[in-house]
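Reading group handout, session on sequence-to-structure problems. Before we discuss, look at one worked example. The prompt was deliberately terse, the way you'd type it at a terminal:

> structure Transcription termination/antitermination protein NusA

The input record follows.
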Amino acid sequence: MVKNLRKLIEQVAKEKNLPVWTVERALKDAIAVAIKKDRKIRDYLDVELEDEGIKVFLVRKEGKEPLDISPEDLNRLAAYAAKEEFLKELEKAEEERGYLEFVELEGQIVFGVVRKIFENSDILVDLGKVTAILPKREQIPKESYKVGDRIKALLLEVRKQKGRYQLILSRTHPKFLLRLLELEVPEIKTGEIEVKAIAREPGERAKVLVSSKDTKIDPVGVVVGLRGSRIAPVSKELAGEKIEVIRWTEDIEELIKRSLSPAPVTKVRLIPEEKRAEVAVPKEKLSVAIGKHGSNVKLANKITGWYLDVMSEEDFEKLQSLRR
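And the output record:
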């Protein structure tokens, strides 16, 4: 019986282009399922295919113990399992293999087709061998999708729940913007240009902090491209997200000034122990510095790592005079 089962394993492994151990595990799981159904057993069963026959063990907290089952019953149930349960277990094994191939792609861009849109607006995406979920929270707010649409997203996470794998996608994560920039700007991929930080308000605006190993090279110009030729396709992919590229500097005061662009910053007072800075801008430019719904200053906070307290020049002077 075991000899026949081993032949079956080798044959299926060859036909399905699967590792022998994967097929063997699927068959042993199928036998375990058949025995549990027949004997109404709830405990976990460990099935071993040994030369002298099939061995089954009950697995409990205190250890493993042989299951009292006759060779005749074992052969009957194994034959049944090979016909009825094996295909189900094999499908699970093939599915698992498909998901495991995507583990190495975590943090990279994947391409798929929208297969279903759920009531909660989560999207089921067909990636070919497997499916993935693009949750509502990971979708760019202004975008809408329909079944059949092609979609590009970051493979955010490969997780396993209740024995099944699930792929989670994102179009809002900062790393998605980074990967898109890598596609358009080879110098980022090669390391000539380094992306120091990215902050996004998905679909609205983003700030990207860049530096160059070669001081003669303008990293902003390289990333933006001639007449915006490199940054434009990235912005288009992100539903028109306005992407501002900023040159990094070790001078934190200067970095803060650059981060609040397009507003002109006239004065900065650093409070290092709080990692906070008080920033003065012309009164008429205060709304520009803060941005719509505070977006400009929020993004500046994220890419600098400092909390920026932005105020008019008049309020800045008043605050400093109180300290004198």
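Points for discussion. First: The chain has twelve helices and 14 strands. Second: The chain has a mean pLDDT of 91.
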